[in-house]
């Protein structure tokens, strides 16, 4: 029994319980797999936080190392590799590295420069947490995921560029980056954020004054620019097809927005509570506007690129019924719609007479029904405007004219029906 116990103790002593498998030129490595000879950069010893002064100043990581006659490829910056190395000022990462692990540069407060190569696909949880010396970061196009709190507490960070392949960004990714003022967003299709507090720029939103969307962006995720109160202008590129819910909610210095001809849907509350937003251009590509998308905006100018498409937008009322000005714009839109129905009825009646096309009878009668319904709808709206808004001057003249116009247009529909 004593012999077995002694053998057990000797075996334990022979085991290497340290994080690193070997060291070359002052950098410690852990073998990931012997089959492909891949290694990761790691810390020295068995406890990462005892490694605080192991790496200092500039560290250049090679793409491969040779140890005991075997050449290894460096493919990862391991978990905790540079944890709390406060004397570290810059790191050069080779193109062989594909991932940066959790807490890899945690509390490297002296780190002022790092270039993430275009081979890295993932950045781990808290990877650069409290790297308070970093002033700018560019996420390359190879990166697909940025994990929770990846750059949290980088208090000197003033600008960040997000690559076009990023699809997921974890909660609090840039939380506490109090100096961040400029964002370049190239991500094509980042998954929607579940709430405003899970968005990457939560708690620093009011600091951001410049937010630029790249030409590759296809979807603006929910809550992305939520309450960026100092964002005065936004240019949405022609590549964007959808704007998520509350994407620009509470951007209360935003004055104008042009939505490109590629956008098909605008989510609920997308531009709500933007009180200085007075002008908007809606292209004919838009087919859906979510509930209260422009609630709380004081829109006085709506530019329409295609009347027919405009009239077919689902949820148009959420743009047009926010305040009295928008109600007047909505009234004008309804008059245009009713006029188009009259045109259809007349055209069908003429074709019935000239070509003796009896199929046109149904078209004329259907158009007349829709004209009658529009008359009732517009009359109701006018009455509401008169009672609720108490309009005067030009507003009153507009409503009075509308009431006269719908009576005449209803008569046009009746006469077309009589012809049929």
Could you describe the 3D structure shown?
- The protein has 420 residues and is an alpha/beta fold.
- It is 26% helix and 20% strand.
- It contains six helices and 24 strands.
- Strands 1, 2, 3, 5, 6, 8, 10, 12 and 14 form a nine-stranded mixed β-sheet that branches.
- Strand 2 and strand 3 form a beta hairpin.
- Helix 4 packs antiparallel against helix 5 (360-389) and helix 4 (324-355) packs parallel to helix 6.
- Residues 1-17 and 322-326 have low confidence and may be disordered.
Compressed to H and E, one letter per element, the order equals HEEEEEEEEEEEEEEEEEEEEEEEEHHHHH
Mean of residue pLDDT values: 84
CA distance, first residue to last residue = 111 Å
Structural class: alpha/beta
Number of H/I helices: 6
Poorly predicted ranges (pLDDT <50, ≥5 residues)? 1-17, 322-326
Principal-axes geometry comes out as elongated
Tell me the major beta sheet.
9 strands, mixed
CA radius of gyration is 32 Å
Strand residues, percent: 15-25%
Number of DSSP E strands:
24
| Helicity range | 25-40%
